[in-house]
């Protein structure tokens, strides 16, 4: 269903926003410092989210298909306003679920996406494994191979994935592997690795600078054998796609289906960054109006007030870019200027700018863990790195607006 872009998302979405804000304020924010220090997956919070319906396939599907087009950004902004680490621990599963939705058959979607979430009494996780030690921004150079064993109708996967959110602790992993290295990114295919599959194991778990309540680890694939039915989209579709790609190579065309998928998913990450920025801005505004020096609130100094004016302006601009791109994705508008990448670039940079300013406005207190801006400042740093670094977003935008193969 298509919709007209509106700054009023409607009564239903406003109710969802208020409901999620309550969850973020009452459940997530009070737990944020503890789970940041523990650097562990906050299972009790995910379970609470599952009981309330915040962690469920139905909820994300409902937000995704909301006719306003901005259901997902509204949900992301509120959850990540609560805390980015716990927020990612709650929504990390959607990375795997979206990969199944984008590439799977109806039967595969119906089989695997519910298993990624489980039930409120038996919560499960999903993960999406694309990045590798030698293939981050240059994802086309990935080395993980999937080889077809025609006699058994099985795929055999070998390789090492890294930086995987929920890697090794997820029940269902979606793994991108190369089935034809000569074709680069067009020779990639996505596979579901079902729970308990032999050969998949967790490698190193990373100790991180921020979003520390979210589990990030390597995933090792050592002779992982999967039934043919685990190839997302099926073999026939893959063979057709590979044949077209081989034709494309000869005609020197570049496929852009993967880029279109990124354009649609990046605004959701931008919305997370808006949530982090808004949270830090609110703390800073409150502090600046109550902290007194030289006999007046520090906000009465133009130098302080103007900083807050810039923070608020950038946050609102970032949200507008995110909402525009989300609305475009929901309404199948062509991303002629890489508007999805634009929204993620600007929101990520805004989160870093705002949290840095917020720390400064809190003076010595901003430098301590007594106040949340120190954590928000650390958390914000991920938003210029994952889902494509800021440099890669600029590259994508520059290529889109110029039509040139900018490197
Ligand atoms: C906490 C966390 C969670 C993550 N979760 C996942 C996940 O769930 N699944 C997954 O698959 N991946 C995940 N990632 C991986 C993430 O997407 C990559 O880290 C990111 O794409 C960057 O890749 P890289 O780290 O290899 O950096 P590199 O690609 O090595 O980049 C290093 C630097 O070089 C710059 N650079 C590289 N190429 C160019 C260029 N052409 N022009 C200009 N500058 C360039 C980059 O911008 C960057 O500043 C996660 C990462 C982190 C840190």
TrEMBL record:
PROSITE patterns: ACYL_COA_DH_2 (PS00073). Transmembrane segments: none annotated. One of its GO terms (molecular function) is flavin adenine dinucleotide binding. Residues 127-224 form the Acyl-CoA oxidase/dehydrogenase middle domain. Residues 12-116 form the Acyl-CoA dehydrogenase/oxidase N-terminal domain. Its cofactor is FAD. InterPro entries: Acyl-CoA_DH_CS, Acyl-CoA_Oxase/DH_mid-dom, Acyl-CoA_Oxase/DH_mid-dom_sf, AcylCo_DH-like_C, AcylCo_DH/oxidase_C, AcylCoA_DH/ox_N, AcylCoA_DH/ox_N_sf, AcylCoA_DH/oxidase_NM_dom_sf. Its EC number is 1.-.-.-. Residues 256-401 form the Acyl-CoA dehydrogenase/oxidase C-terminal domain. Keywords: FAD, Flavoprotein, Oxidoreductase. It is an enzyme of class 1 (oxidoreductase). It comes from the Bacteria. Belongs to the acyl-CoA dehydrogenase family. This is Acyl-CoA dehydrogenase family protein. It comes from Streptomyces sp. Y1.
């Amino acid at each position: 269903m298509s919709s007209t872009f509106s700054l009023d998302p409607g009564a239903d979405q406003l109710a969802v926003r208020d409901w999620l804000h309550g969850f973020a304020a009452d459940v997530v924010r009070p737990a944020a410092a503890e789970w940041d220090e523990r650097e562990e997956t906050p299972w009790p919070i995910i379970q609470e989210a599952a009981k309330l319906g915040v962690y469920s396939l139905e909820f994300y599907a409902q937000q995704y298909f909301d006719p306003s087009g901005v259901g997902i950004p509204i949900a992301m902004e509120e959850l990540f306003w609560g805390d980015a680490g716990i927020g990612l621990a709650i929504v990390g599963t959607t990375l795997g679920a979206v990969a199944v939705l984008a590439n799977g058959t109806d039967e595969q979607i119906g089989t695997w996406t519910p298993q990624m979430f489980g039930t409120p009494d038996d919560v499960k996780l999903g993960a999406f494994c694309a990045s590798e030690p030698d293939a981050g921004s240059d994802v086309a150079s990935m080395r993980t191979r999937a080889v077809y064993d025609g006699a058994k109708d099985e795929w055999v996967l070998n390789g090492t994935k890294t930086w995987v959110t929920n890697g090794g602790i997820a029940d269902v992993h979606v793994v991108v592997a190369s089935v034809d290295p000569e074709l680069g990114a067009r020779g990639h295919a996505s596979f579901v690795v079902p729970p308990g599959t032999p050969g998949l194991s967790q490698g190193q778990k990373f100790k991180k600078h921020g979003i520390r309540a979210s589990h990030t680890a390597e995933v090792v694939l050592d002779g992982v054998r999967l039934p043919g039915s685990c190839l997302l989209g099926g073999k026939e579709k893959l063979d057709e796609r590979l044949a077209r790609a081989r034709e494309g190579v000869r005609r020197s065309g570049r496929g852009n289906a993967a880029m279109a998928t990124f354009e649609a998913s990046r605004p959701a990450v931008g919305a997370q960054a808006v949530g982090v920025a808004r949270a830090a801005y609110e703390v800073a505004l409150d502090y600046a109006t109550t902290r007194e020096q030289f006999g007046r609130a520090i906000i009465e100094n133009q130098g302080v007030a103007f900083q807050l004016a810039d923070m608020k302006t950038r946050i609102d601009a970032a949200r507008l870019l995110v909402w525009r791109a989300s609305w475009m994705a929901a309404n199948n508008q062509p991303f002629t200027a890489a508007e999805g990448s634009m929204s993620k670039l600007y929101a990520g940079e805004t989160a870093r700018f705002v949290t840095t300013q917020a720390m400064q406005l809190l003076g010595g207190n901003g430098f301590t863990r007594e106040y949340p801006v120190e954590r928000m400042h650390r958390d914000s740093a991920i938003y210029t790195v994952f889902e494509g670094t800021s440099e890669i977003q600029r590259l994508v935008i520059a290529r889109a607006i110029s039509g040139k193969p900018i490197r």
